[in-house]
Amino acid sequence: xxxxxxxxxxxxWSADMLQVNLLxxxxxxxxxxxxLLVGYERSYHGRAAxxxxxxxxxxxxxxLTVFAGFPxxxxxxxxxxxxxxxxxxxxxxxxxxxxxTGVGFLGAGVIMKxxxxxxxxxxxxxxxxxxxxxxxxxxxxYGAAILLSVLSASLMMWAPKLEMRxxxxxxxxxxxxxxxxxxxxxxxxxxxxxxWGFTVAEGSLNISSxxxxxxxxxxxxxxxxxxxxxxxxxxxxxxxxxxxxxxxxISHARN
Length: 255
Known about the structure:
By secondary structure, the chain is of the alpha+beta class. The chain has helices spanning about 5-10, 15-45, 50-65, 80-85, 90-110, 120-140, 140-165, 185-195, 230-240, and strands at about 110-115, 115-120, 170-180, 200, 205-210, 215-220, 245-250.
């Protein structure tokens, strides 16, 4: 057991430790860029999980993996407990496994689904990433933990602005209730939506009937990558003018 003194505390910020933290940071940055690339593909197609979610999860996963490659640098280079783990003692990686699993269940609790709109995915990813930050602090990788915190916070603050500037196809969740006894024309309705610059997403149409009143629930995806093909107000007015429509509910179909 080490006594807490200045030389011991200084060992966490030694030249060797700073070099290891820099290597960890390079891995985190590379994982972040690749996560953003995959997340943009989802964001472009109007999916719920976008650049922030993919970037945070990819970066945190890299953090939880790369630190295991430097066991001799854990706890400021005083990694005697690692030898004990290899001989049957407590294994720190099993502790980490339990942490990220438990925090994963916690993050799942903040994901909300209301109709066709999903929210809370980025919050859940950030909660999971915070466990990776805690693990890095726990093993003494303070520099990498600080940089991961800065990257995560910056990603959550600035990624939405970046996504808004990049080309994307907007998605709208629509619920149409028709007048009792009216039988809507699917082909004509879809053609009208195409004329507005949208299309009904494949496999999203859900038809229900209650007391002779038919309701359609579906997702409209923009055909063009224009930032704003049409406002919600214009789309709502257009949908209400369709023959037989009794009520309209429309919202953005992503987080």
